[in-house]
Design brief:
The chain is an alpha+beta fold. The chain has 7 helices and 8 strands, in the order H-H-H-H-E-H-E-E-H-E-E-E-E-H-E. The strands form 2 sheets. It has a 6-stranded antiparallel sheet with strand order 2-3-5-6-7-4. The chain has a two-stranded parallel sheet with strand order 1-8. The protein is globular, with a radius of gyration of 19 Å.
Length: 278
């Protein structure tokens, strides 16, 4: 395997202390803004156990890299940097992307992309596109359990998520609802997929502002799991949602995993079982 060369991205490599749920997003000013909110409603402890797989240097550094990439995205989108600087950065990132291709892809049944699919609200979600600390696409949201039927969540969407001026794109609001409602439906003890999701947009949802989601597991009827939630900012209701999740039939997830493996093999994506520690 080739050695990953990122010298042009940040100069001399530096060691970093182990990342935790509370400190892994420090490089993102928006994430820090949510953590520093004086409102105790935003002091949410994640219910999932991020230590299940992450006590290795690899996961610590993946979180660090993802956090740095979020900051690059946040600053790149509104930037008016000169072309030569952008060219140097793009060259370095393209080289690193090629270096990453030399490493096998993770293939581990304990890794979940969203809480609704896990059937275990204490599973491991570092690769989730909404809550994953090791996924640079994630804002990330922080979701926690309040009681057996209620959950709450917080997060801040930055410049990359803009729709209307100064506001979060409605598609990302819907995606956030899907994740939060997926978590609260898991309190039923069932793993499910979204059947229907209805969002009512009341007012624009502001960027760079701590958002507060409140979610409820309403009822379970057979395989249908009914949920609802609201999101507010600055004490103002911004949107509300209702969703029905459908619990899995036996073997559905295994079939999806098998199909993913076969597709990756057809595309020539190298993969390895389990996690790789360093």
């Amino acid at each position: 395997m080739g050695k990953s060369d990122t010298s042009d991205l940040g100069g001399k490599a530096r060691s970093a202390p182990p990342a935790t749920l509370k400190d892994s997003s420090q490089a993102n000013p928006d994430s820090q803004r949510a953590q520093d909110s004086p409102d105790p409603a935003f002091d949410i402890t994640p219910h999932w156990d991020a230590t299940k797989l992450s006590q290795t240097e690899m996961w610590t550094q993946k979180r660090r890299l993802a956090s740095a990439m979020r900051l690059v995205i946040e600053r790149l989108v509104p930037s008016n940097a000169p072309p030569d600087e952008l060219e140097r950065a793009a060259d370095a990132l393209e080289r690193y992307a090629e270096a990453l291709q030399d490493h096998p892809r993770l293939r581990d049944p304990r890794l979940f992309g969203e809480s609704a699919n896990a059937g275990d609200v204490g599973a491991f979600f570092d690769q989730s596109p909404l809550i994953g600390l090791a996924n640079p696409l994630a804002p990330p949201l922080t979701i926690g359990r309040k009681d057996d039927r209620h959950a709450h969540a917080t997060g801040v969407f930055g410049s990359a998520y803009e729709g209307p001026p100064g506001s979060v794109h409605g598609g990302f609001v819907a995606a956030a609802f899907d994740e939060v409602l997926g978590y609260v439906q898991s309190l039923s003890g069932l793993a499910g997929m979204t059947g229907t999701l209805t969002v009512k947009y009341r007012k624009p949802t502001p960027l760079h502002t701590p958002l507060l989601f409140e979610a409820e597991l309403v009822r379970v009827e057979g395989r249908k799991i009914f949920t609802r939630a609201t999101v507010s900012a600055d004490g103002i209701l911004r949107a509300e949602a209702e969703a029905i999740f459908i619990s899995f039939r036996k073997g559905v997830m295994q079939d999806l995993v098998k199909a993913r493996i076969e597709r990756e093999e057809r595309l020539g994506m190298p993969s390895t079982p389990g996690t790789r520690s360093q």
